[in-house]
């Protein structure tokens, strides 16, 4: 019982902290503005400004999530443990009568709640307008859940580095590096491989490479869950998407492994 | 080298007499390229305030972290409340600690009260002690302000308040009076006095010697990885045979001959400094009383006598220089 009360206390404190410093509202609203722009004007080039077709809108939103949500997860969590270390509270809390690993899990839970709240703030208005205009609630719910999930992967990665490095300045640089790697460079790298080999690479190998990038997995999973066969065909992905179970398993692994490494490391502090 | 001093409070303490709260033996800690602690022995009884003094970088903080289990020693044994500590402190052992790190910034967006409520729940206590802790450290008026508005001294008080939240048996305070103003320091020691009467043992590091001197039951000087002196302040000063400084003005019937006569009887070598109207001389403790009596009883030889007895600072300097030359 006490384990849960400690977890809850840490998560609650983390949430209050981000509510007070304006994070949830500010970032949530910024996200809302971007999603509204996409929902409304994203298809302005087709000649009509207004609510686009559900599939096209969702596809654009998935891309927005790929750019923004990993960044949110990283910015939210990069100093989760390093911040406590620099404030002097990490040593203090390590001397307290509870297992230090609970600090990590409590932070994780708190940051998960912050991210969820931010995305709810960000998606509620565009979703309401879009659903009112005839889009399905199911699509938006799936978008919210998968967005939270990809955010969680990056919270997990950021927490891992936060325990390993314990230096906020370096962690900012590392976070930007991770974002660039997974969101921008990885795809460029794969295109580079395909172009330089003139496509003479086994597709199985390319598919395997996608498992190394959680944002690529997220893209595939979202397309798999939310796009219809026509859209998938338009994207040229018919028959190319790995089984849903494999994607879910891979993203789950990406959410768990970094946290597990962080847990192993935080237990070994001072040893 | 080390002596366990009987606590002044031990007889009135509710804790069983003679039981040790903390016992360290042969603690050794090496960091890459430097042995910080070589062989540390230290014992603390309930109700005892032991001051850990030493220059910066001598390992005071390291020693505290080792006691808390935040760092693992390379060698040595730690016994907390009669129980040998393994590499991880048990929850019970941790619950007996109250720790104040040297610098703690806390959480800027929480109020003082919320901070203590949070920390109290992490100590698995109800929030009933929070109000009491806030009032003990004199922060009740600022309880609802966010910590980012606190001064350095207020943060230090908040840090002290959190040590009082559980029912600590051993307080480990790392430079606790840093940033406190004189009245704050006075109140701080009053709190410690009260805790001592309840049998709480306190290990406190500081380099503010004048402040620690009258308040600690025992002193442990950390230097070059060992505790190079341990005992009550009075005893250490007596053992060190530090000279007192005697200053006086010439009296109406002053003459150099009569002074010389008095000094000859008590001071082997001429160790005084003559100024126009006054004299300054140094004298070992063994001779002090007789010399003063003689000076005062010689008819109008002197006026306005001032005696400066050696304090912790002189002791500290002497011990430091002694160790440096050996």
Question: Explain this structure to me?
Answer:
The complex is a heterodimer of chains A (271) and B (326). Chain A has 271 residues and is mainly alpha-helical. Chain A contains twelve helices and no strands. Chain A has helices at 2-20, 23-41, 54-77, 82-87, 89-94, 101-132, 137-165, 168-196, 203-210, 214-226, 229-234, 244-267. Chain A starts with a helix and ends with a helix. The mean pLDDT of chain A is 89. Chain B has 326 residues and is an alpha/beta fold. In chain B, the strands form three sheets. A six-stranded mixed beta sheet of chain B has the order 6-7-8-3-9-10, sandwiched between helices. Chain B has a four-stranded antiparallel beta sheet with strand order 2-1-4-5, with helices on one face. Chain B is elongated, with a radius of gyration of 24 Å. In chain B, 41% of the residues are buried. Chain A binds chain B through residues 2, 5-6, 9-10, 13, 16-17, 20-21, 86-89, 91-98, 269-271, and chain B through 65, 68-72, 87, 91-92, 94-95, 97, 99, 101-107, 109-110, 114, 118-119, 121-124, 162, 166.
Number of E-type strands of chain B: 14
Strand content of chain B: 25-35%
Q: Which oligomeric form is depicted?
A: heterodimer
Mean pLDDT figure of chain A: 89
N to C succession of SSEs of chain B: EEEHEEHEHHHEHEHEEHEHEEHEH
Order of helices and strands of chain A: HHHHHHHHHHHH
Q: What class would the helix/strand composition of chain B place it in?
A: alpha/beta
* Terminal residue distance of chain B: 16 Å
Number of E strands of chain A = 0
In the predicted model, the low-confidence regions of chain A spanning at least 5 consecutive residues are: none
Mean pLDDT score of chain B, rounded? 84
Q: Name the structural class of chain A.
A: mainly alpha
The profile of the biggest β sheet of chain B is: 6 strands, mixed
What is the 3D form of chain A?
globular
Overall 3D shape of chain B = elongated
Largest interface summary: A-B, 25 and 31 residues
